[in-house]
Amino acid sequence: MSDIAGGGDPSAITSVTAESPKTTGFDANQIAEVKAWLTSQFDAVGKDVPDFEYTPRSIGELHKIATLSQAKTQAAVIVANDHRQKAAEYRSQAARLREILESVGLAQESLPSNVVSSAHVLAKVSNLLDIRDTELSSFLVAVSDLSLRKTAVEEKRGKVQQESKVLLEYTRKAIARLTYLKRTLSQLEDDVAPCEAQMENWKTNLAIMESKERQYLKEYGYYKAMLNRVGYTPEVSHGVLVEMAEHKKDLEKKTKPILDTLRSYQDLPPDKALAALAIEDKKRQYAAAEKYLEDVLQSALASSE
């Protein structure tokens, strides 16, 4: 590995780190482990370690990677050794079985082709069912387990299909709702122009109505001031005047016969005594009629109050 570290000598950095590790933050043991690991990794592929700057962060990260790599490498070596041992055991067992089969005349070369193919099929079935013997019970147990797994898969598939149907129905409803909302939005967009025109018309009418309202309020104030000047009071209302007019008509109907009688007296010969009596009688009737009219007017005014 190259000894260049950020343009300087890493040994000098190591010596400084060994003297004052708290100041620089470098760890000499970590640097040595990282150098050894990088050298081993790049030497394995026939390449030199590239130059890089030694910093506490880079050394820390590389040390973590080196530790993890070494642990995984050790685990891989253990697994590989285990597989090699199992492969050797399987080869020795295969050789022993081959010797036994050859001793009883059942070597693969001496067997018919259909037997060999059946044996291969049996081996494939055994591998598929994950069984290590040719016992019928093992085969039945494996087939039963496979059937159970198939049933479980079918049940899960049924549930997934049911959920898919439900989701499909929800999707269909959502699409229908979206189509309805789009159609409604299109209708609303089409109605925007007429509604805006109607609103403008309403604004114009509102301005006219406000102008009329101000005019009517002004006229109302003018007429109210005029009524105050002429002495109008709420007691002299239209209803009271109508009622008084009706009473006047009744009195005219009642006094009309008297007036007709008085006019008929004008055609009689002059008789001073009788005329005086008749005049006095008519005066009393007329006074009674006036008193009645006054009483009616007073009662009408009192009821309106």
Automatic annotation (TrEMBL):
Region (Disordered): 1-20
First-listed, main subcellular location of the protein, grouped into a coarse class: cytoplasm
Cleaved signal peptide residues: none
Top-level lineage group: Eukaryota
Key words of the record: Cell cycle, Cell division, Coiled coil, Cytoplasm, Cytoskeleton, Microtubule, Mitosis
One GO term (biological process): cell division
Cellular component GO terms, alphabetical: cytosol; HAUS complex; microtubule; spindle
Subcellular location: Cytoplasm, Cytoskeleton, Spindle
Entry's family note: Belongs to the HAUS1 family.
Protein name per its UniProtKB record: HAUS augmin-like complex subunit 1
Organism, as annotated: Anisodus acutangulus
Lineage of source species: Eukaryota, Viridiplantae, Streptophyta, Embryophyta, Tracheophyta
